[in-house]
């Protein structure tokens, strides 16, 4: 049974090949994600990772690790504060913010941090449901 304040953390990174695969899967071929020459002319200076690919880390964790297998990912609100880049390692922190035992739901903070300087890159909250957890 999960409770308010429960936390979980993981580290992740993506390769350019994974980003390119996501371009193919999603159909989002914005050159900002894969074309170094194009990205060099932008304020980001190099290709950035798709926001939806970053959010897929939340989905993986909530469905498989915390709260775990059988969870239903109901909702995600994310604010992308800074760009994330290929080859850099990031830390994701999850913290249970609320629990509704009647509806078998919880709200979980979803935050991504840069490992080197500890800056928050993505700030959000997710809603999940899992009958076995409450």
Automatic annotation (TrEMBL):
CDD domains: R_hydratase. It comes from the Bacteria. SUPFAM superfamilies: Thioesterase/thiol ester dehydrase-isomerase (SSF54637). Gene3D superfamilies: Hotdog Thioesterase. It comes from Aquirufa regiilacus. Residues 11-111 form the MaoC-like domain. InterPro entries: HotDog_dom_sf, MaoC-like_dom, UPF0336/Enoyl-CoA_hydratase. This is MaoC family dehydratase.
